[in-house]
Amino acid sequence: MRGPTVFLSVAASLGLASAAPAAITVFGNSNARSCYEAARAERTGPTHIRHCTRALEDRTLASNDRVATYVNRGILHVYNGDFESGIADYDRAIALDASEPDAYLNKALALLHNQNDLPQIISLLTTALEFGTREPALAYYGRGLAYELSGDIPSAYYDIQRAVETDPGWELPARELTRFRVVGGEDS
């Protein structure tokens, strides 16, 4: 089951309400942990972002925690409507660990807000899935929306259907599937 929102503006404009972000767990450093908890709980405000920034300023922060903290701070920026800063943090995470799937997932969802560069969004979501995102249903659903916006309706249907299969308890993709009508089929 998902939490109440993915990203404020994205949810409103693209129907991603009831999907949770892909926050990355951090153990150890208290500021990094506070940053993770804020991203997971969908908190907004500068205090939570400051926890993330303080964690990133700590030179002893483990590499994997640094990557996670960039992703989590990116989520908080997006919650606050600062998509540019969020995307910059996802890019920093990818630069440090090019195989971190949830950096790709969150970057794609932030880009989806503006509904431009749909091929890049589709590519980012495909990469997130290939690297094993913690939120595959969200990645399939987001990619389905990007395919639909780009006019590739069969791929959109397939990915939204995959989101339903991946997380049957998530109602939004199931509801979205009812907008599609399958026509044709094998002739007798």
From TrEMBL:
SUPFAM superfamilies linked: TPR-like
TPR repeats: 67-100, 137-170
InterPro entries in the cross-refs: TPR-like_helical_dom_sf, TPR_rpt, Ycf3
Top-rank taxon, per record: Bacteria
Gene3D superfamilies to which the protein is assigned, alphabetical: Tetratricopeptide repeat domain
Signal sequence region: 1-22
Keywords, alphabetical: Repeat, Signal, TPR repeat
Protein name per UniProt: Tetratricopeptide repeat protein
Species the sequence originates in: Parasphingopyxis marina
Source taxonomy: Bacteria, Pseudomonadati, Pseudomonadota, Alphaproteobacteria, Sphingomonadales
